[in-house]
Amino acid sequence: MNHPRIGIRPTIDGRWGGVREALEEQTMNMAKSAAKLISENLRYPDGEPVEVVISPTTIGGGGEAAICEEYFAKENVVGTLTVTPCWCYGTETMDLNPNTIKAVWGFNGTERPGAVYLAAVMAAYAQRGLPAFSIYGTEVQDKDSSGITKDVEKKILDFARAAVGVGIMKNKSYVNIGAVSMGIAGSVVNVDFLQKYLGMRTEWVDMTEVLRRINLEIYDPEEYKKALAWVKENCKEGYDTNAGKKFPEVITKSRFIPDDKQWEFCVKHALIVRDILYGNPKLNDLGWHEEALGRNAIAGGFQGQRMWTDWLPNADFTEAIMASGFNWNGKKMPTPFATENDTLNGVAMMFGWLSTGKAPIFSDVRTYWSPEAVKRVSGKELSGYAKNGIIHLINSGASCLDASAAAKDEKGNGTMKEWWNLTEADIQACCEATDWCRANYEYFRGGGFSSHFRTAAEMPVTMIRVNIVEGVGPTLQVIEGHTCVLDEAVHKTLDERTDRTWPTTWFAPKIGVGAADSVYNVMAKWGANHGATVEGHVGDRLLTLASMLRIPVAFHNVEEERIFRPHSFNGFGTADLEGQDYRACAYYGPLYK
């Protein structure tokens, strides 16, 4: 992976003859401290530490700004963090590159006016139409202080994390395998959105390409043997909802792959889909040079229903294992991969994954259960996080296995981890917590297997959705809350009212904050039938990322004090932050317009 980097710009008072010389060490130490903070705390999606470069010179004016810019241009710098403890010449030292994400950290100390420079350069950025993030600590520090206060740390990391996410997406591809599934609007891929807002290429691959590769054996035969053996050992079969049923001829005639060959087909499907997205040098060795190249993907989706699933095994195994933090080769980078080719939810999965390093969950936002309704059907009352009602997140067996929450944190609690922190014990536990149910033939005539588990821990999580609204463009919804572990009898009663072969996550939104005034309204105002969920309360990270991409956030429950957007957004109104966000994003337009 060609890693996008963060570039640190140490700016300084340009007056030689005592002033500048006295500030060189302190200014460069600020840059080094920021670089150390970022590289020690943030990772790329591939697990490597985020790379930071520092300008070869402090920047006192336009000449040195040009030296820095020339250096950064060779270093794949996507975001710049300007740092200073002192007054500098604003328009002479600012980053004027329209293609970088910008932040400025002005040191809060009384001896030198770093805050004055920060205010001056923020005014300059606003006048020049270049949104920039302002970083300023709440506490005054002594002039010789080398530490970074906690509030400044958070803002630097939030900025750098989101800027790296912007850089990771740029020039990558979203690969649509198939087309529109069952008329779902989210799977009508919007190429303008992907190109202009995310900087991404859109790729299309017909589903027949998967059949071609299966029939011509365009996959690594040795890896296929390894993957199939792993599946036989770790993917135990569960409940068969078809047992004892008599199906009409239209269903029985549609069963094309024999039952005893279905796992073999599903494993080949998973290998091939991965190779389509990323390529595989082993294919080159087998004489398939074009196929070995892949599509330079970062995310993708599979249409499945119904042209595929009416006669072939569904893609649930592929979708679940692509999105998981492990497979038959051990722990690996998750791939945001959308069921039913819901590209907009695939993008939501990608945003969540880039913000956490953790596997994203794809779900139907299926049912709102009020406390009264639960009491009526189960005879029991909800409590804890669930006391105000819950939302049933469930999908056709395509959710990542990490969502079982069988991995354990240092206290022994169930959780979801960054994929690079998964242990062999975590992987085994997730496999043991999941069984694979034969697909319901009434839905999936061709068969297949669905991952089946329930999220077995109460964790902080964030649910995400990207929507496109005519007249507005793309918008983002972000709702924080918790997963819930229900009483066994309550879970069974509620879960078996829908398809019991699918994975379940019970979600309780955090209410009373922002737009989330009730659990019911979270369900009622959700923008589509699908949502993506990641572990952690990371709504603030997502709002920062959205502001960089100029995507307004339409519905969220992130506390106001946690929101970090470019300073110039304040010029679009301060009393109504949601309206401010909309107006600023509309004015600045997409990042790659």
Helix fraction, binned, reads 25-40%
Assess the beta-strand content as a share of residues. Answer: 15-25%
Shape: globular
CATH topology assignment of the largest domain = L-fucose Isomerase, Chain A, domain 3
CATH homology superfamily of the largest domain: L-fucose/L-arabinose isomerase, C-terminal
Q: What is the strand arrangement across the widest sheet?
A: 13-14-21-20-19-22
Number of helices: 19
What's the level 1 CATH class of the largest domain? Answer: Alpha Beta
Main attributes of the structure:
593 residues; alpha/beta; Rossmann fold; L-fucose Isomerase, Chain A, domain 3; 2 domains; five-stranded parallel beta sheet; globular
Q: Can you describe this structure?
A:
The mean pLDDT is 95. The chain is an alpha/beta fold. Helix content is 35%, strand content 20%. The strands form six sheets. A six-stranded antiparallel beta barrel has the order 13-14-21-20-19-22, surrounded by four helices. A five-stranded parallel sheet has the order 2-1-3-4-5, with helices on both faces. The chain has two domains: 5-169, Rossmann fold (3-Layer(aba) Sandwich); 173-588, L-fucose/L-arabinose isomerase, C-terminal (L-fucose Isomerase, Chain A, domain 3, Alpha-Beta Barrel), CATH 3.20.14.
Lay out the secondary structure.
Blueprint: E1 5-10, H1 19-41, E2 52-54, H2 62-73, E3 77-84, H3 90-93, E4 101-106, H4 114-128, E5 132-135, H5 150-169, E6 173-177, H6 191-198, E7 201-205, H7 208-215, H8 221-234, E8 237-240, H9 249-252, H10 262-278, H11 281-285, E9 297-302, H12 316-323, E10 326-327, E11 330-331, E12 337-339, H13 343-356, E13 361-369, H14 371-378, E14 390-394, E15 407-408, E16 414-415, H15 424-432, E17 435-438, E18 449-452, E19 460-469, E20 473-484, H16 488-495, E21 504-509, H17 519-525, E22 530-535, H18 539-549, E23 553-556, H19 577-588
Parallel strand pairs: 1-2, 1-3, 3-4, 4-5, 6-7, 6-9, 8-17, 9-12, 20-23
Antiparallel strand pairs: 10-11, 13-14, 13-22, 14-21, 15-16, 17-18, 19-20, 19-22, 20-21
